[in-house]
Predict the 3D structure of the following.
Amino acid sequence: MAAHDTRMLLLGAVALFEPVNGYQIRRELLSWSVDDWANLNPGSIYNGLATLTRQGFLVRHDLEDGGREVAVYEVTRAGRDELERLVTAGLEEVSVVDRKGFSAAFGLLPLVPPEHALRSLVRRRVALEELVARLATPPDAAQAPPHALRTVVLWLDLAVAELAWLRETIEELKAGRLALDASTWTPPADDPGWQMNADRERYRALLER
């Protein structure tokens, strides 16, 4: 997974739950299976948080919580601008073989104003339509070996399937049937998010927010 996609996931996870500690970010991202599809392991999560803090995209607060020290993170203004740029690019940029950036960006849609999300998805649809048109005209059989031509068929089938899904998703958004506000969903009683919400309120009190 590209470094900018890792940066997007880390910034997005902090923005969703801030103020939030590093362990909670690690647990949340691993619940998204990022160690599988995004190749983002626990060690790189902590290193990434430290790097983003040095770069001014995150701010770290060292708090004393119940007799123990805990580091909590928030997104800075520069971090929000960077996150918006990364999510927009992830939604709009089309690759024949790599959809990891799009998967990460789509998972962060609640952080994007609905009109911006819709605009970016429409731009992706246009790019996908152009890609399908190109792939539908494969290279001349004399110019490529048979197995390479079969690879093009696979790329075309995947692009056609994504395009159908994307068109339906855009219509769901336009009709208001696909809610981007995460508050419209209530997690189960044993979801770790409840504890994260309780911790967030406690951190806010410690930060005098």
About this structure: The mean pLDDT is 89. DSSP finds nine helices and three strands in the chain. The radius of gyration is 20 Å. The beta strands are 20-21, 58-65, 68-75.
